[in-house]
Amino acid sequence: MTAQPHSSAWPAERLAEARAVLADVAHHSDPLIRIACDVLIRHGETADERAAAQRLRVVIDARRPVQRAQREDGGRVRS
User: In angstroms, rounded to a whole number, what is the distance separating the alpha carbons of residues 12 and 23?
Assistant: First the structure.
């Protein structure tokens, strides 16, 4: 990784990292998977990629107990 957060390669590198996390979800933590999903939901190249990331995010969120989810989300109600 480079130390230049504003380089032109930055978005492509983050997308590549997010895709790598989702390609190997069995070896990554749920919080990291959530971040990767969020990146692809917002910045994925295709509608299919964004939709798949959204579906995975729903599955990952469903695995969290309600009280833990509220604590991690700062008590906000998600819609």
Answer: 16
Domain locations along the chain: 10-72
| Six token digits for residue 46 | 């295709």
> How buried is 54 (Cβ within 10 angstroms: 0-12 exposed, 13-18 middle, 19+ buried)?
middle
Q: Which amino acid is at 27?
A: H
Assessment of whether the complete model's pTM goes beyond 0.85: no
Tens of pLDDT, residues 10-67? 889 999 999 999 999 999 999 999 999 999 999 999 999 999 999 999 999 888 776 6
